[in-house]
Specification:
alpha+beta; four-stranded antiparallel beta sheet; 18 strands
């Protein structure tokens, strides 16, 4: 029989991120905390899969688990083998101490031991059944662990206890099958009492089950369901704005955060002085969203209006007082922004660059000024590789020298999220060229793997690529690399940016030269790193590995199979310089092969490749001597190569990999004919080596682009 469970952790106001963790928002389904809780219950023998009800809710003051479980722990039957019969019983047939000890360890009488011979001799066996405990007992052990095992970014202690949690726990509520389950946690004992909204429904509420619990909280002004609360917030924001003839500019990230910080939804409209509208839109929006979690409003023409919508958790009866408080706060915030903005513009960006020498980029890598200098050198190298006009190079170089200058402005110190944005604004105010100003802003793009916002200018693209590549190479050069889940300097994200920028813009860059530019820059700046030959190669391999890993992740997200990606990368790993690869080419090859999966053309290539490789292993000589060609089929294969080679080389040179694969596929019949009629492993050395050279030639041609032996054929999947 199934029974209902309501488990609630009542706390002081929780950070938004904690609510998201508990409810599984912004996490992969297989790795979310709700999935881990399900597994924890299942591992404890509680049948929750398939499950009729399993919900994890969160608000600012409570984390809730509602589930339906069986009233008894699952039973598991089995048998355990003990000592051999000869050891378990003496000559008189009486049980020995070995038998008694084994029986005792299994919780049965020694008389219950069974003798069985399963083909490896006669042993004693004990049959046993585990589980069957009441669910109440099991949950009393498991539920505290659900609290203490929650992965939290920051924790705290309170009082004199040892328990660590995001915020102090004020009460526990646990009702199972309508009855109180007194779960114990750090001196707290759960009962059947919860509490409603802090101001509008603070009285104790007795709980009897899930449906009554949810409805009782609703009556006490608590919207438990996050989706319902989010929808209510959005409707309230839109209602308040439209009541003033305005439109709310709703940032989904802010909306999600606000949803987690309230239990009831009340919207109010606040105003600020119109004089602040002289500030850039980004400053106004950031001042409202970043710190205060307000929602800006727009007029009919799309401009920012002197007002905002706030979703608050207070009593609507006190709305006037609440609004006055918020207006006072935003006025002070915008006054600061107004001061910083006008003070910043008194000093040009170029005059701020030297101040970057006083800002540490990293203790092993010098200052931000050092990074800017490396960007200058790296832009020069990239500009030499790309066919752009001189003015593009000049703009990119100027942007590189100024791109970090806004980091020492008052506005960005106050609002770090505006880095790049203020640099662009100040550059335009100084009369610098538009592409330079845009590049200052765009060099931070894209900011994540999911973001589709890329630089729109050539200068911005060049600078974004150089900035990210410099960080990846410089940190790895001094021995700082991502490890497991740890990546404090976001090097994986930076490497992803490098890959995405190169692919999107189809930059066929000389990666080794770009990396060498960064390494050379570090050397010129007296940055210590492993410059001996062994350390140099190791660092280059690590850089290549990180970039290839991020390229692989991108291809996987595009639906390309693991084995195809590994097959495309394999030839790269055999090169002397691990960085000697073209990202655009590798992606093109991988997608071409992926598109041909399951088709006859690719099957032909894989079949021929595998057959040739198996008999040409270890053969390095690919020169074929015509005087040793005896059978017609080997002569046919040699002749086919004469026609194939020029066309294949031309396709590879043109990066036309579909045509190249088609040419390889076209050799299938002549290769099969060769294997059907010719004995490759002839006893005569000259014949054998010549025939292996023919096969090695095919393998060598194919291996220029893909190790086809790594691709799993459709029949083997």
């Amino acid at each position: 029989m199934s029974i209902d469970l309501v488990f609630e952790i009542g706390t002081e106001e929780l950070p938004s991120k904690v609510v998201d963790i508990w409810t599984g928002r912004n996490a992969a389904d297989t790795d979310s905390y709700p999935e881990r809780v399900k597994k924890k219950l299942w591992d404890a023998g509680l049948t929750v899969n398939p499950i009729k009800v399993f919900r994890m809710y969160g608000t600012a003051r409570r984390l809730v688990l509602i589930a339906e479980v069986m009233d008894e722990q699952r039973k598991t039957s089995g048998e355990a083998r003990g000592p051999s019969v000869a050891v378990a019983f003496d000559e008189a047939g009486s049980p020995t101490k070995a038998a008694e000890g084994f029986a005792r360890s299994r919780g049965i009488d020694v008389e219950s031991l069974e003798r069985m011979d399963k083909g490896d001799g006669e042993y004693v066996y004990a049959s046993f059944t585990t589980g069957g405990r009441p669910t109440r007992e099991v949950l009393a052990e498991v539920l505290p662990a659900i609290v203490t095992d929650m992965p939290l970014p920051k924790t705290m202690r309170w009082g004199s206890g040892d328990l660590r949690f995001s915020r102090p726990i004020q009460w526990l509520t646990c009702v199972l099958g309508g009855e109180t389950l007194p779960v114990q946690l750090e001196g707290l004992s759960a009962d059947n009492i919860t509490y409603g909204h802090r101001f509008r429904g603070p009285d104790a509420i007795t709980i009897t089950g899930p449906d009554q619990y949810v409805s009782a909280l609703a009556d006490a002004h608590v919207i438990l369901d996050q989706d319902a609360r989010r929808e209510a917030c959005q409707k309230e924001i839109e209602r308040v704005a439209s009541s003033r003839g305005l439109k709310a500019a709703i940032n989904n990230k802010v909306l999600n955060e606000v949803t987690n910080l309230v239990e009831s939804v009340n919207g109010a409209f606040g105003e600020f002085n119109e004089d602040f509208l002289a500030l850039p839109r980004e400053v106004l929006v950031t001042s409202m969203e970043s710190h205060q979690r307000y929602f800006p409003v727009e007029n009919a023409s799309g401009g920012i209006a002197p007002g905002f919508v706030v979703i608050h958790n207070g009593d609507p009866a006190a709305e006037d007082i609440i609004v006055k408080g918020h207006q006072k706060v935003i006025s002070a915030r915008l006054s600061d922004a107004h001061f910083f903005y006008h003070e910043d513009k008194k000093t040009q960006l170029k005059d701020r660059v030297e101040r970057l020498g006083g800002v540490t980029f990293h203790r092993k890598l010098g200052t931000l000024l050092d990074k800017v200098q490396r960007l200058d050198w790296l832009i020069e190298e990239l500009a030499d590789q790309l066919p752009y006009e001189d003015h593009v190079r000049e703009n990119a170089l100027l942007a590189a020298r100024l791109c970090k200058a806004d980091l020492v402005t008052g506005m960005v110190v106050e609002f770090p999220v505006l880095q790049g944005t203020m640099g662009r604004d100040y550059a335009l105010a100084e009369g610098l060229p538009g592409p330079v100003a845009d590049a200052i802003y765009e060099h931070y793009l894209p900011k994540s793997r999911q973001e589709d916002l890329f630089p729109t200018t050539t200068e911005g693209t060049m600078l974004a690529l150089c900035d990210k590549l410099d960080s990846v190479v410089a940190f790895l050069a001094v021995g700082i690399s991502p490890s497991g889940s740890e990546d404090p300097y976001a090097l994986r994200r930076q490497a992803t940016g490098v890959v995405r920028l190169i692919i999107k813009n189809e930059f066929h860059v000389d990666l080794p030269k770009l990396v060498d530019s960064v390494l050379s820059g570090l050397h010129r700046q007296d940055v210590r790193w492993e410059e001996d030959s062994e350390g140099h190669v190791a660092r280059r391999a690590e850089i290549a590995g990180l970039i290839l890993d991020q390229m692989k992740r991108g291809l996987l997200s595009d639906g390309v199979r693991h084995d195809v990606i590994d097959a495309v990368i394999a030839p790269v790993l055999k090169q002397d310089d691990p960085l000697a690869f073209d990202i655009v080419d590798l992606v093109s090859i991988a997608k071409t092969v992926a598109d041909l999966l399951g088709g006859a053309e690719l099957d032909n290539v894989i079949s021929s490749y595998v057959r040739c490789r198996n008999l040409a292993k270890g053969v390095e000589v690919t020169t074929v001597h015509e005087e040793y060609l005896e059978d017609q089929e080997e002569k046919d294969l040699a002749q086919a190569f004469k026609q194939f080679d020029p066309a294949y080389d031309e396709a590879i040179e043109a990066k036309d990999y579909k045509t190249a694969l088609g040419l390889l596929s076209g050799l299938r019949d002549v290769v099969d004919g060769f294997f059907d009629a010719v004995l490759v492993m002839a006893t005569q050395d000259e014949l054998r080596q010549n025939r292996q050279a023919l096969l090695a030639h095919y393998v060598g041609c194919a291996s220029q682009i893909v190790d086809f032996g790594k691709i799993v054929s459709e029949s083997d999947r």
